[in-house]
Specification:
homodimer; 14 strands; 6-stranded mixed beta sheet; alpha/beta; Nitrilase/N-carbamoyl-D-aminoacid amidohydrolase
Chain lengths: 266, 266
């Protein structure tokens, strides 16, 4: 299968234009993708000024323009789409991503580990770290700062994920290296789709690091993006490689793991 | 406090000469150290040909030349020594390391995750991942391939370790980068002391990658060694930095960790 990330710069609050930008990029450069990952909060931008502002931009899924767009993209590309958006659910707002299949069926993951001022804007997610069947394999989702807690990727791997889709709005420099370790220690693929550019709101601004990437179960970067600029990275991967949990001829990821000694971990 | 690693090339089976080499290097270059970490299996070398050979070279602790040497080094340097050796305990042999204080008191850690043919030579360790008080702080121990399982460093951190001492005989290239992530994700220091050179035994040989390092809680390498050659890396560190578990002004390592969602981890 062909896995891809789409890196671009959303303009804050311009939902229609952001969705169109992703559709155009995907149509032009991701036509062959079977799985395409978009950034975190791809339709709204990131640097909100208040919880009210997030609430006004947030959308139900399905039921809003982002859901419609992701569903159309999945159909047009005949690909699984995973992308981030601000999710309104009743009175709550989550920093979520949706996985949408070509047939329009979908799953939502709500970010568990909120970063900095996201705590003012969103409710912490309540999703289990549970992979879902899609594109003929099991796909896990996590969002941006979730990378920092190894338990997230670990649980997805223990529950059978072969690919982690990782919509991001990274501002710190550590994540691209750390995701190589997440892949290596869990023997799976990861697709990090990051945004680029800068959000300027009032007296605040925030820059994002780009460097989207696809990493394989050996911790090797298969394709990666520069720090700036729109970029679609597309690469052939075989998810079955992530089902082989032999680390060496005599070391197996599952069997060697000393859970008998891991008592107080949770 | 001053933390250090000692990197050198043990000669297989030449216990007295290996111990003397470490004593000389430490006396000449690690005189200021408060904590000095030596490689895995530092007194025997690595590439055994049989379990009988390991058994013959293995030593009780205390009670053998390695224990005597580490204890003497701790006294002479007025430093905590952590070093690896083949431990005989009754009929069993473990791939162990000892932590020895200047007053001669000691703790043993037995490697939990054995790599490749170590499974022919040693029994898997039964030590809890529990830091011990030393050098005015709490020090955790893990050995070489234990790095691969994030649970090991995680448990040591959750139990209060500020420094992980990591005697190693690394042959694969991933660990130096991965230890930066272990430090970052747990907000602690790590001292990896690796060996260099090559063991040649019968028709087999194995090369080791050197690149010993001290890493801080921000994932920065403070001092590191080249791939080859004897090297003592000595650096001032403040273990209290590892007690500060704030990741950002609004993110705390402990409080933000979503253990409510980590159910099936063990």
């Amino acid at each position: 299968m062909k896995a891809a990330y789409l890196q671009f710069e959303p303009r804050f609050g311009e939902v229609s234009s952001n969705l169109r930008a992703m559709q155009d990029l995907a149509a032009n450069q991701a036509g062959e993708a079977d799985l395409l990952v978009l950034p975190e909060l791809a339709s709204t931008g990131y640097l909100f000024q208040s919880r009210d502002e997030v609430f006004d931009l947030a959308e139900a899924f399905p039921g809003g323009p982002t859901a419609d767009c992701f569903t159309q993209m999945a159909f047009d590309l005949n690909a699984v789409i995973v992308g981030g958006f601000a999710e309104r659910s009743g009175d709550q707002v989550y920093n979520s991503c949706a996985l949408v299949r070509p047939d329009g069926s979908s799953h939502i993951y709500r970010k568990a580990h909120l970063f900095l001022d996201e705590k003012d804007w969103f409710v912490p997610g309540d999703s289990p770290f549970e992979p879902v069947p899609a594109a003929g394999t099991l796909i896990g989702m996590m969002i941006c700062f979730d990378w920092y807690y190894p338990e997230v990727a670990r649980l997805l791997a223990l529950r059978g994920a072969t690919i982690i889709c990782h919509p991001s709005n990274l501002v710190l420099p550590h994540c691209p290296e750390a995701m190589k370790v997440r892949c290596l220690e869990n023997r799976l693929f990861a697709i990090t789709a990051n945004r680029t550019g800068r959000d300027e709101r009032g007296d605040r601004s925030l820059s994002f690091i780009g460097m989207s990437q696809v990493v394989d179960p050996g911790g090797q970067i298969l394709v990666s993006a520069p720090p700036d600029g729109d970029h679609v990275g597309l690469v052939e991967i075989d998810p079955r490689l992530a089902e082989d949990k032999d680390v060496t001829g005599r070391n197996n990821w599952t069997r060697d793991r000393r859970i008998d000694l891991f008592g107080d971990l949770v």
